[in-house]
């Protein structure tokens, strides 16, 4: 579900929104570096109309910081593990500054070995995943990332929730075209979109989740009040969600989605888990041809009638925002300003 940006009350220049968000993060105890990474991520999501992870998330960040659940001053520790392997301990802080700290080493390894892995653990991720992969494709690299979240998804064939909403994001360069990017929860819906629907009093389509008794429901509040989401696509989405748990948590040393307990931190919202990023340099095998092959594939998809590639809606929103500013409702802007008090 993407929230509409029709007739927005206010349009803010992207830089102004980023500065406002950075000030909020710093006001609530984040270091400059952490505030910059999170503000860039959250403002970019709002700019691209990725509303489930735009400014809607700011109160959750703030309540989490206030609860002491996350370290807003964390200094990530980067370890050069092997020719194609970088590990980073996010030190109980956010995953995005850990990625920022490890990125130069990761890219130089991907360019020399042809492929490199970044394993982030002891990290919190509360955001859209595409901002973590798209910049690699801007540099001609292919990137795949997975992150696990918090128990709220019933594995296919099971009776109780276990997995997180566990998104997978992918980015690849495409000649004469912005990168091809997709970013999708492996649950039938993102948890953020369930919250947005509940707030708006909107029923969900069938097949998204179950209530506290395990019965199918279209009521988002019933999912939030002790119910759970289902994986998308039955056993297939469930298998992908299981894979995300293995790659993002078991492989990195992070927590599985069910392994952390935030009960002693009222207000905590950010899953304390792990994240994996795999970066491939396609020039090692295909030289410049990979991006041209991408382009050829896109042309074939259009030739068979496709009108919307994943990522294209965001790019369209981004283009509008670059001309007109980032869309915010008056309530959203007032809510952000209130977080500075
Ligand atoms: P959507 O279902 O809205 O979109 C998934 C992907 O499909 C996007 O790449 C989207 O492109 C594309 N898409 C959507 N509709 C179409 C269409 N009709 N034709 C072609 N492509 C289409 O995303 P989700 O609700 O699954 O996830 C939303 C966000 O929530 C993601 O950014 C995800 O990373 C985030 N999330 C984060 C978690 C975390 O732990 N940090 C956990 C779960 C989710 P486009 O973007 O252009 O619309
Ligand atoms: O929307 O599912 C979600 C989510 C979980 C953690 C951050 N976003």
UniProtKB/TrEMBL annotation:
Segments forming a coiled coil: none
Stored InterPro entries? Mal/L-sulf/L-lact_DH-like_ah, Mal/L-sulf/L-lact_DH-like_NADP, Mal/L-sulfo/L-lacto_DH-like_sf, Malate/L-lactate_DH-like
A Pfam family this chain is assigned to: Ldh_2
SUPFAM superfamilies, per this entry? L-sulfolactate dehydrogenase-like
Q: Does the keyword Oxidoreductase apply?
A: yes
Ordered alphabetically, the record's keywords are: Oxidoreductase
Q: Which Gene3D superfamilies match?
A: 1.10.1530.10, Hypothetical oxidoreductase yiak, domain 2
Q: Does the keyword Oxidoreductase apply?
A: yes
Family assignment? Belongs to the LDH2/MDH2 oxidoreductase family.
The protein's name is Ldh family oxidoreductase
Q: Give the organism the record lists.
A: Pseudomonas farsensis
